[in-house]
Design goal:
Length: 335
């Protein structure tokens, strides 16, 4: 007689989670397994070479988990995103970029012509120029993950008219970063309205490192994280941001790719447990979103926004994807 494979997996899992041998035997006996057989199954599991390898991996994971929990607990000491004005480039990189800490920069782009953009100004600048938008979003719960499937062409003038015609709120259509409009030659004139100058942004990297958002009140970007640092400029209208530290492991529990498995608007208790930082980004505000930080965004008004990943410092990171694995290996022992 022997214990089933299911029970052997149970033995290994509980040992790796810190259960003692006595606890394992007691648990098996309580389920009708004879004591002698339970003791033998325990001993055989411990002698398995695969268990020894799993035990080493489990120890490493516990150590990493302790480090993550430490960083999570430290990040929860504040629920406020700091506001700074006249922050030097050096101080920004030292105190926020390198420290993976969000910050709101006041007055960052006050001298840009783009600071005066309105829907009417976009229509004036671009007229019948074709842009790409995401459309039919409200019929698809995964609209943001499947932005490419919802991409449609329209003239900027027509988009402006459609946005201004919305009575109240709508999340059904939205010009978003994934539409990659600022990579189109026909929209390059918008860069004439920007002043990179002596900022932390690289003008040479602007194509492919810049993005435009435009839509009505009520547009929502679901809770997700990005794989690079972002500088987000709120040009027109207001947006509600909800942000969470990358060390909030609960957000990985039911995540898909870079998207969390819940909305903080629908589950405020869970959001609060995850150390939410909630604030409104006003026109003229610039938000630094560090790589890996979870964020949920709702437009409170008709809104125009710009975003940049073209920092002068390195901004390329390995994909941080929940529930995915990058397999590593150790050198086999010599014979």
């Amino acid at each position: 007689m022997d214990v089933s494979a299911r029970w052997r997996v149970w033995i290994a899992e509980n040992l790796l989670r810190g259960a003692t041998g006595d606890m394992i035997v007691e648990g098996l006996v309580s389920q009708g397994v004879p004591a002698k057989l339970a003791e033998r199954a325990l001993a055989e599991t411990i002698r398995e070479p695969s268990y020894a390898a799993a035990r080493e991996t489990a120890l490493e994971l516990r150590q990493l988990k302790q480090m993550v929990h430490l960083q999570r607990d430290l990040s929860r000491h504040t629920s406020i995103v700091e506001r700074r004005r006249d922050l030097s480039v050096e101080d920004f990189y030292r105190s926020y970029y390198a420290m993976n800490t969000p910050v709101i920069l006041e007055g960052f782009f006050d001298d840009w012509p783009a600071r005066a953009w309105t829907p009417a100004r976009l229509a004036e600048l671009l007229g019948d120029t074709e842009v790409a938008i995401t459309d039919g979003r409200e019929a698809d719960p995964d609209y943001d993950m499947r932005a490419a499937e919802h991409t449609r062409p329209t003239a900027m003038r027509e988009l402006v008219d459609r946005v201004l015609a919305v009575d109240g709120e709508s999340n059904d259509f939205y010009l978003v970063a994934n539409n990659r409009n600022l990579e189109r030659d026909t929209l390059s004139l918008l860069f004439d309205e920007m002043r990179f100058g002596e900022t932390m942004l690289s003008e040479e990297k602007r194509v492919g490192g810049s993005a435009l958002w435009f839509g009505p009140a009520g547009t929502v970007t679901p809770l997700h994280h990005d794989t690079s640092n972002i500088l987000f400029l709120q040009v027109y209208g207001r947006k509600r941001y909800r942000m969470y530290s990358p060390f909030e492991m609960d957000l990985l529990r039911d995540a898909r790719s870079m998207y969390a498995g819940f909305s903080p608007e629908d589950d405020p208790e869970r959001a609060d447990r995850c150390g939410e930082r909630s604030f409104v980004l006003d026109p003229g505000d610039t938000l630094f979103i560090p790589v890996g930080w979870w964020h949920h965004v709702r437009a409170l008004d008709v809104a125009i926004s710009l975003a940049f990943t073209c920092f002068t410092k390195r901004n390329a990171y390995d994909w941080y994807r929940p529930r995915s694995a990058r397999l590593g290996h150790k050198t086999p022992p010599r014979k």
